[in-house]
C-alpha cells in the first residue's frame, strides 16, 4: 500500500505524456526537476553556510514517495511535482509561531536574506551558465543553412491527418525545393490546390520521407493547418578559442537582460488584464514547450532551460507572501520599521499568499488542460 501514491503519480505523469507532441518528454521532466533541484539547492547551501541543520530537502510537495537520508537531511521525492522546498530542522518559515531551537530568527538580517534569496541566486547563476554555453556554441559556427522546420501542427487539420509531425524538415512541396524557394510561394501553391494531393518531401529523424497531403477547402483556398519556421542548421564549426568565453558571457548577460524586460512586460500586461490566456503557461504548458525544444537539439533545449530558470528567479523574487520575495519583503519591512510584526499578522499574510498562489496554480493548470484539447 505504501507504493500506491508512487504508482498513481507515475500514472498521472504518463497520461500527460501521451498528450505531448513527438519526442522529448523525459527531457523536459528532467529540466523542471533539475531547475527546482538547483533552486532548492541554493537554499540548502545558504542554510549550511549559516550552520543551520536541514531536516527535509524535497522535490515536490505532499506525501513522500521515495528518498534517502544524507546526514540529518531527508532527501525526498514527493507526490505533487509542482515545485519543492527546504525545511530547516525545528523551524518552518511558513509558521512564524513555531519553535526555533537552532536560532534561525536570531541570525543576522543579511544571513536570513541570503537564505531566502539562495534559490533565486542559484537560478540566476544557472541561467548565465546555460546562456553562456549557447553563446560559445554560436560563436564557433562558421557556416549555416536555414531549413523550414515544422513547429506546430493543428489538431484535426489536414496536415495532421496526412501524417505531418512537429520537427519535420521540409525539403520540397510539389515543384518547389527548400532551401531555395520562398515560403510565400509555398503558401500560394498550397492555397491554389484545395482537395488535391500535394506531395511533401521532408526529412524526419535523418530519413527522407514523402507525404501526399490534401489541403482542406476553406473559402475557396486550400488549407493544411501547420506552421513552419526557418531554423538555422550549423554546417561547419571552427575550433574553440579562449575569446569565445568572453563572447559567451556577453551573450548570456545581454540575453538575460532582454528576456527579463520581456518577463516584466508580460507581468505588466497581466496585472492590467491585457495579457491573453495563450501567453500563460503552467507546468503542463512548460513540458509541451520543453518537448518541442528538445526535438530541435541540445542548443535550443539549453536555451529553453536557461529562459525558464530566469523566469523562476524573477517570479520567486516577487514580493508575494509565501514566495521567497515575500519573505524577503517582510524582513526588509521589519528592518526599516525596527520592530517585528506580530506572529498572528505574519501567519495571516503568509496564509493569504499561499491561497493566492494555489488559486493561480489551479487556474494555469486549467488553461494548460484547455490548450491540450485544441
Overview features:
4-stranded antiparallel β-sheet, single chain, two-stranded antiparallel ribbon, 10 strands, elongated, 374 residues, Pdz3 Domain
Q: End-to-end span in angstroms?
A: 37 Å
Shape: elongated
The average pLDDT value, as a whole number, equals 82
Work out the radius of gyration.
25 Å
Helix-strand makeup class = alpha+beta
- Name the helix and strand elements from N-terminus to C-terminus, one letter apiece: HHEEHEHEEHEEEEEHHHHH
How many E-type strands? 10
Uncertain runs are: 1-23
The percentage helix is 40-55%
Largest sheet, spatial ordering of strands: 5-4-6-7
Strand content: 15-25%
Number of domains: 2
Chain-wise SSE layout:
Elements: H1 4-19, H2 26-50, E1 54-70, E2 73-88, H3 109-139, E3 141-153, H4 158-161, E4 169-173, E5 176-177, H5 183-191, E6 198-204, E7 207-213, E8 216-218, E9 221-223, E10 226-237, H6 243-271, H7 283-295, H8 298-317, H9 324-337, H10 343-372
Antiparallel strand pairs: 1-2, 3-10, 4-5, 4-6, 6-7, 8-9
Helix pairs in contact: 2-3, 2-7, 2-8, 3-6, 3-8, 3-9, 6-8, 7-8
Report on the structure:
It is a single chain. The longest helix has 31 residues, at 109-139. The protein folds into 2 domains: 4-122 and 320-372, no CATH class; 142-237, Pdz3 Domain, CATH 2.30.42. The protein is built from 10 helices and 10 strands. The radius of gyration is 25 Å and the shape is elongated. Helix 2 packs antiparallel against helix 3 and helix 7 (283-295) packs antiparallel against helix 8 (298-317). Strands 5-4-6-7 form a 4-stranded antiparallel β-sheet. It has 374 residues and is an alpha+beta fold. It has helices at residues 4-19, 26-50, 109-139, 158-161, 183-191, 243-271, 283-295, 298-317, 324-337, 343-372; strands spanning 54-70, 73-88, 141-153, 169-173, 176-177, 198-204, 207-213, 216-218, 221-223, 226-237.
Amino acid at each position: 500500500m505504501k507504493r500506491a501514491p508512487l504508482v498513481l503519480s507515475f500514472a498521472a505523469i504518463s497520461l500527460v505524456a501521451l498528450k505531448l507532441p513527438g519526442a522529448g518528454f523525459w527531457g523536459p521532466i528532467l529540466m523542471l526537476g533539475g531547475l527546482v533541484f538547483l533552486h532548492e539547492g541554493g537554499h540548502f547551501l545558504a542554510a549550511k553556510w549559516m550552520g543551520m541543520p536541514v531536516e527535509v530537502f524535497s522535490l515536490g510537495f505532499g506525501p513522500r514517495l521515495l528518498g534517502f537520508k544524507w546526514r540529518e537531511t531527508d532527501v525526498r521525492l514527493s507526490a505533487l511535482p509542482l515545485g519543492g522546498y527546504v525545511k530547516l530542522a525545528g523551524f518552518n518559515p511558513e509558521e512564524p509561531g513555531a519553535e526555533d531551537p537552532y536560532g534561525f530568527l536570531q541570525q543576522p538580517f543579511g544571513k536570513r536574506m541570503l537564505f531566502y534569496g539562495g534559490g533565486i541566486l542559484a537560478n540566476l547563476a544557472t541561467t548565465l551558465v546555460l546562456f553562456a554555453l549557447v553563446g560559445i556554441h554560436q560563436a564557433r559556427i562558421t557556416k549555416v543553412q536555414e531549413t523550414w522546420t515544422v513547429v506546430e501542427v493543428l489538431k484535426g487539420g489536414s496536415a495532421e491527418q496526412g501524417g505531418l509531425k512537429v520537427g519535420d524538415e521540409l525539403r520540397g512541396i510539389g515543384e518547389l525545393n527548400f532551401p531555395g524557394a520562398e515560403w510565400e510561394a509555398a503558401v500560394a501553391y498550397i492555397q491554389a490546390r484545395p482537395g488535391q494531393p500535394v506531395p511533401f518531401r521532408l526529412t524526419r529523424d535523418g530519413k527522407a520521407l514523402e507525404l501526399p497531403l490534401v489541403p482542406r477547402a476553406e473559402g475557396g483556398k486550400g488549407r493544411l493547418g501547420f506552421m513552419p519556421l526557418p531554423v538555422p542548421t550549423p554546417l561547419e564549426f571552427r575550433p574553440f578559442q579562449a575569446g569565445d568565453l568572453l563572447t559567451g558571457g556577453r551573450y548570456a548577460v545581454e540575453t538575460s537582460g532582454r528576456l527579463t524586460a520581456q518577463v516584466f512586460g508580460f507581468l505588466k500586461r497581466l496585472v492590467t488584464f491585457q495579457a491573453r490566456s495563450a501567453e500563460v503557461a503552467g507546468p503542463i504548458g512548460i513540458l509541451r514547450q520543453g518537448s518541442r525544444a528538445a526535438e530541435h537539439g541540445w542548443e535550443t533545449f539549453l536555451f529553453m532551460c536557461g529562459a525558464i530558470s530566469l523566469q523562476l528567479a524573477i517570479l520567486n523574487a516577487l514580493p508575494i507572501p509565501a514566495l521567497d520575495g515575500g519573505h524577503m519583503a517582510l524582513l526588509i519591512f521589519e528592518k526599516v520599521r525596527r520592530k517585528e510584526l506580530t506572529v498572528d499578522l505574519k501567519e495571516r499574510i503568509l496564509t493569504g499568499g499561499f491561497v493566492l498562489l494555489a488559486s493561480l496554480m489551479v487556474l494555469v493548470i486549467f488553461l494548460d488542460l484547455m490548450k491540450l484539447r485544441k
